[in-house]
Amino acid sequence: MPEDNNNNEEIQRLQTEVKRLRQRLSDLTSPLDVLLRHRGFRIYRKEPSDDLVLPPEKFLGSFYEILKKYSFRLFLRDVIKHQDFFVKEQVERYATADVTGNYIDFLLSIMLIEPVQSKGFRLIKRPVKSFGATLEWLLCEIFKREFASEATWGVKFKRPKVGGDYDLISKIDGLILYMEIKSSPPKQIYANEIAAFLDRVSDLSPDIAVFFMDTELRMKDKIVPMFEDELKRRYPDRENLLPFVRIEKELFQILERIFIINAKDSIRNNIERVLIRYFRPDKSIL
After folding, report:
1. Helix residue spans in the chain (DSSP H)
2. 240 or 96: which leads in pLDDT
3. Which domain holds residue 198?
């Protein structure tokens, strides 16, 4: 047991040192907006707040920590779905009654919901269209807090051919990472969304591109085949040169810079596995 504690302390020390070095490297390299201008991109709009579900600033730290839990994110989606009025039973599909009760108490304590009528609640900030903006905020905060990286979300550029939002853009060790963020389950993802993601990858030409889905379901069943079909359509003569590589579990890679990941186990750890695979492609990530 003492040896395990020593190993954990060493891992934490190394993670802290990596964050410090990344922060130092970030300070020494050009800011993200400058790196984007080098590619001919200027940010037109970013980080829209209309649909953000966030507490007052003094509660942001505790909200960020609990938002990293998959069950809480599923719970919060149901709260948004029933934002005008809900009772406990309507938002406990993904957790036990006790856990759901704790989640409701937490939202009350950070002033995100308020009681209404006898046993009901409602979201204080309304209307909110979806959980999407809050999820993008979470991923952006993970890059900032866990990887000491400059990052922004909900980015729009004025591009004549390729439109849409770039859900997240980050500067990682002087390189540009672009992430598409999906809060929908795989069954609600369609081929045109895969095509739009690849169009933006082609236009921006980031060093690292990530297609992230906030699900613990399998990616191999539908999402990976959809990528395979779209790439075959785009590059019919290169079909044999575009193999998908399973990094581990439901994390996949293609062309050494495009990654498909989900939220299984830990979003932060899955992002770290992507970065390790990119910077050490010929090494085991374990």
Report:
1. 2-28, 32-38, 60-67, 70-81, 97-109, 132-147, 191-204, 223-234, 267-279
2. 96
3. 2-49+131-279
